[in-house]
Design goal:
Length: 455
């Protein structure tokens, strides 16, 4: 069970006064938790069954603007309701919020009670079911990087974003002393998440001033995505309680390293054996793994939209800063978009390094799975491994350079349409186009600074 409460143990905790509040949350297109806080007594008597939310939640942008052009919800359709159906397997304690538990929900159509196909959880569920029908359990991990600031979001709003104060003064990659200074926050985060049933492996300093990373143990794909969105929310909540703030933007400062969310992937047989392992192969990679990787490479440019969903996401892909620019594979090589980790061991796996910390983990994992499973089904042949510095190799597969390019590639992808469904592809291409339209329309500080006097 991914959560650590049942309705029964929750009831007991409510009786003793230990828990009085249940957060009932769905996941939106941006990968944020959206929902309501229930009085725990009401959740136990009725709320656990279902509640409702406005169906605009799967069409709004970061600002909650009612974006036009979606099939699922609009002013013309009157913005009705979705059913929020708690997935009681995800019911858990939230140790960092007083007296609080949390449950994640599936989104169902109000009339048919079918899952809404465009909902992130439904999209991933479909690909996991496809893998299981082929006899494999996808096991995944999504490492998360972020920056920590000394000042709160409120203080930053008051004084302006030029006043961001990173928690450290220097690149703290693997540093123990600097991260000791950050322990009040990071220890609370590790222990809080652990108490919420999330198997945190470790936290570490990352490769720029104020940057951190958190790793959660690999699990089945759905648990990993659920954990990912809870980890992000928890990091913000715990930092906020300490008067600090964090950002998961892919690139918050031109001069600094971006924040990634590498996706580690392996397939296991249904009786728990690593299906990517073949001791006889020189790299220890099974044919199954090679086909899966070949699929990911064949559709790498078409899946990028789901790994890099904003205009800002593409600013992370720059030479020499550990974010990849080429969608090729290589063993234990951090310059490649697809890095093989643990070669010749039981933990042999694919680390897709393309995703930023701003990705929606359900969509990212679903798109990667869709591509990999297609590779297995069609027995795609793996191209030769490349070695050396991929940044400097010309004429090899590039990661799309802009959201515009990535959206066009996904829109015309027959493979993504076949695997995810036309309705899903069109929905998320619309989301991307809106981001582009807005970025095209809005005058930025950068333009003002350059042009004000000299244009
Ligand atoms: P590195 O720091 O080299 O990227 P780590 O040892 O920190 O690698 O592992 C990164 C992530 O990979 C961890 O979250 C771990 O749980 C996950 N992982 C380990 N083995 C597997 C596997 N077989 N399949 C998927 N993920 C895995």
């Amino acid at each position: 069970m991914p959560g650590n409460l049942t309705l029964e143990t929750l009831s007991k905790a409510v009786e003793t006064g230990e828990i009085d509040t249940v957060i009932v949350a769905a996941v939106d297109m941006q990968g944020r938790l959206v929902g309501k806080r229930f009085h725990a007594a009401h959740f136990i008597s009725e709320g656990w069954h279902e509640t409702h939310c406005c169906n605009y939640l799967l069409t709004v942008d970061m600002e909650m603007f009612t974006v036009p052009g979606y099939e699922t919800a609009s002013w013309e359709k009157g913005y009705g309701d979705y059913i929020m159906k708690p997935d009681l397997d995800t019911l858990r304690r939230v140790p960092w919020l007083e007296g609080t538990a949390l449950v994640l929900c599936d989104l169902l159509d109000h009339d048919t009670h079918e899952e809404v196909p465009q909902s992130p959880r439904a999209i991933l569920k479909k690909q996991v079911a496809r893998a299981r029908a082929m006899g494999f359990e996808p096991m995944m991990a999504t490492e998360l990087e972020f920056y920590v600031f000394e000042n709160s979001y409120e203080a930053i709003r008051d004084k302006g974003t030029s006043n961001l104060a990173p928690i450290s003064a220097y690149n703290e990659d693997y540093h123990i002393f600097q991260t000791t200074k950050e322990e009040p926050l990071m220890r609370a985060l590790r222990n809080g998440l652990y108490g919420a049933g999330i198997p945190v492996e470790n936290t570490k300093g990352e490769a720029d001033a104020g940057q951190a990373e958190i790793n959660v143990r690999y699990l089945d794909a759905m648990s990993t995505a659920d954990n990912h969105v809870i980890v992000k929310n928890a990091t913000k909540e715990i930092a906020h309680a300490m008067g600090k703030s964090v950002t998961f933007m892919a690139k918050y400062d031109t001069a600094k390293g971006g924040s990634s969310s590498h996706v580690h992937q392996s397939l296991w047989t249904m009786d728990g054996k690593p299906a990517f392992r073949d001791e006889k192969d020189e790299r220890g990679m099974s044919d199954l793994m090679k086909h899966y990787l070949a699929g990911q490479l064949a559709y790498a440019r078409e899946t990028t939209l789901f790994l890099a969903p904003y205009v800002n996401s593409y600013k992370r892909f720059c030479v020499g800063m550990f974010a990849p620019t080429k969608a090729v594979w290589s063993c234990d090589n951090r310059t490649a978009g697809y890095r093989i980790c643990g070669d010749n061991t039981k933990a042999v796996r694919i680390e897709c390094r393309i995703g930023g910390a701003d990705l929606n983990p359900y969509l990212a994992q679903a798109a990667l799975l869709a591509a990999g499973l297609d590779g297995i089904e069609n027995k795609l042949e793996l191209e030769p491994e490349l070695r050396g510095d991929m940044y400097q190799l010309d004429g090899i597969r590039e990661i799309p350079k802009t959201l515009r390019e990535a959206a066009d590639l996904t829109e015309s992808s027959e493979a993504m349409r076949a695997a995810l469904g036309d309705n899903v592809v069109e929905h998320y291409v619309r989301a991307a186009r809106w981001e582009i339209e807005e970025a095209d329309r809005v005058v930025t500080d950068y333009e003002l600074h350059r042009g004000l006097e000299r244009a």
